[in-house]
Amino acid sequence: MSFTTSPLQEGLPFGIRVDALTLAALQDKAVRDEIDALFFRHGMIVFEAVEQSDEMQLAISSCFGPLKEHPVKGVSRVDSDRLPGVIEIRSRRGKGIVEVDGRQVSHWLPWHFDHCYNDELNRAGVLRSVERVEEGGITGFLDGVALYAAFPEDLRARIEGREIAYRLETQFDELRFGRPARYRMIEPKPMPAGFAEQVAAMPRAIHPAVWTRATGEKVLHVSAYMAQGIVGDETSGGGALLEDVCQEINRLGTRFSYQHKWGPDDMVIWDNLRMLHCVSGNDPAEERLMYRTTIAGDYGLGRWETAPQSTVGADAMA
């Protein structure tokens, strides 16, 4: 064996740990194929005791498909010429601060899936931590297959068959659904140049609240982040239903999620078509830096509500 495996966490129906995978082992196509099969089966992998290099991140990412380049020009690239597709996600001191249940944190994010505001999703993301914080900075993961099974039957029946409209909105005061009980924006996030113009050119994206994998499992896949409402029912009743769904996701997230505290020698990949993820936030006085690659691949169920106004909007932001 080129690596060892172990359960992600006792009692969780998803996820697996892969230990001691090397860059040399990843040159073997059989090893890459085995890693990809584990990923499809378990929904996410925590790679432990792996080399912390750009080359290793790209090698791991290559197991799962081609990279998807980030189309937003203002997003910081690590090195576009040498490392195409690798972006940096930085929590800057004193920026993007929100108060959640009486605690002020920066870079907090609610449960969501990536690319919800686009007609195409991405298959997966690979993250590694470059600069860590002492407290917080935890990434949570929640499996949509397990979420569907655990959802209250009546609420599940009401949301199944519905579609959700999403729009690119990133500021904390724009969160419409699933807000914590005590929640307010303190300091907005800095936005890249041209961001407002790009957003204006993008129509809303539509995605199903529940979809079925080729293997037959149903996935509950609703992002509170950037959700605008239920398609065809953007009424007070429809809004109340979507709020109930998002709050139930919050509730179940405290019971069935995996909370990853970043170490100095790990990387994580999650299935964006199946999983939701969130970020706990960290002390606004500290900085946190992550490197991410995005794996191309879509489920073919999303669409634009109307035609994009330009090719910029059609390009699918990450």
Automatic annotation (TrEMBL):
Transmembrane segments: none
Keyword vocabulary terms for this entry: Dioxygenase, Iron, Metal-binding, Oxidoreductase
GO CC terms, sorted: cytoplasm
Family named by the database record: Belongs to the TfdA dioxygenase family.
Plastid keyword on record: no
Residues covered by the TauD/TfdA-like domain: 7-294
Keyword check for Oxidoreductase: yes
Protein's name according to its UniProt entry: TauD/TfdA-like domain-containing protein
GO molecular function, one term: metal ion binding
